[in-house]
Every structure is written in C-alpha cells, then in structure tokens.
Amino acid sequence: MVRNIASYVTLTLTILTLLYVSFNSNETIDLSRYSTEGLDLNYTVSIDPDENDDLQASNNSDFVYSPYLGKSFIGFKEALAFKESGGNYFSVNTYGYLGKYQFGASTLKLIGIHNPDSFLKDPELQEKAFIANAARNKWILRRDIKNFVGKRINGVIVTESGILAAAHLAGPGSVKKYLRSYGLDNFADGYGTTIYHYMKRFSGYDTSFVEPDQKAKAI
To answer: What pTM, to 2 d.p., does this model score?
Structure first.
C-alpha cells in the first residue's frame, strides 16, 4: 500500500515538473540562422507578381518544371513555356491561344497545322510546332540577328534567344520594327507584355540548336 502511494506521488511530481518547465521556458528558436541570404539560387525564370497571365487552363498538365536546366536550349523552351502557360499542354487563354507555348491559329497554319483542336490534344505535335516556329522565325530574322546581337537596346544586351523569344510573343515583323527603331516601336500583347520584356527575360540562352528554315513545318 505504501509503495503504491509513493509511486503515485512520484508520478504526480514528475508531471508537475514537466508542466512547470514547459510553461516557464524562455528558449526561442533563432530563425535568422536559416536565411538564404548570400546563396546563389539557380532560378531560370524570375517571378513577376504584377504580370497578368490570365489563363483558362485545365488541370490535366503532365508538366514538371525544373529550375536547373540552365541556359541550354531545353532551358530556353521550358522557361518560355512556363511563362506562356505554366507549362500546361492543355491551356487556352482568354484570347484563344493554345497549348504549352500559346500558339494562335494563324501561326499554326504557317507551320502546317490546320486543326487547332487536335493540336491542343497532342503534346508531341506542340513540341514540334515550337521547333518549327523558332526555325522559321530565325530564318526571317537572320539579318537582324547578325546586325543586332551584342548591341544594347533600352539597356538590354540583344541576344539571339531574346530575339527568338520576342518573335514567339509578337511575331518576327514586330521584332524587326523593335530592333530597327532601337526600341522605340515596342509591341505589347493583350496582357501588356512587351518585346522589351521578353528580350530581357529570355536573354543569353543557347539557341544554336535551332536551324534557320524558311519552310519549316511541324507536320
């Protein structure tokens, strides 16, 4: 009987001690030790909170975005896709632009695609379309690439990848006007995104993989 009472007393004292320590501890965690300040964070695409990427997208994307593709051609096209649609093959925006790279129907016709509905359901064809469109734009802009790469316009060094990204956004004709006006003729799309913005954002990628081709087709 005495042993049982002693056990209960010991248990009670232990619980009271733990409660006292718990409620009276002044120890805090110094979160400043876990700061990322000074680290080289390898992001491919910057985050622009003020931009309006108004998309009507389904949730059926198989896209997995990696920020570690660097300045390779794959890094270029995936960064551009991430900006255009979040990498969603099945995305349709409020202006009717389609797929991972947000193609318009008129551009698709130029590279041999005449059925937008089938195009939207075919990720492999969308990848071929991106390559074909880039090859066609590179041929159209070949002289401008030669004449302007390395020059500074509106504070941004002109690069081939910047030119090709801007051509994807605005068409090669608008890019020619931008370059030859030294940035005065700065096209903006329906969401307010400009050629200047794409020239800056997609600068310095390796797009040598793309061969200029006047008659490039996806099909």
So the answer is: 0.70
Inside any domain, residue 197? yes
Scanning 25-93, the segments in alpha helix (DSSP H) are 73-85
Spatial distance between the Cα atoms of 90 and 73, rounded to a whole number of angstroms: 22
- The rounded distance, in Å, linking the Cα atoms of 125 and 75 is 19
Contact criterion met (CB below 8 Å) for 51 and 169 = no
Indicate the number of domains in the chain: 1
CATH number of the CATH domain containing 85: 1.10.530
| pLDDT band, residue 58 (cuts 50/70/90) | very low
- Give the residue-averaged pLDDT of 160-174: 98
Q: What is the pLDDT of residue 54?
A: 42
Residue 183 Rama label (left phi>0; alpha psi -120 to 50; beta)? left
Q: Which two tokens stand for residue 120?
A: 């939207």
CA atoms of 19 and 37, how far apart (whole Å): 38
Place of tokens 């232990």: 14
Kindly report the length of the chain. 219
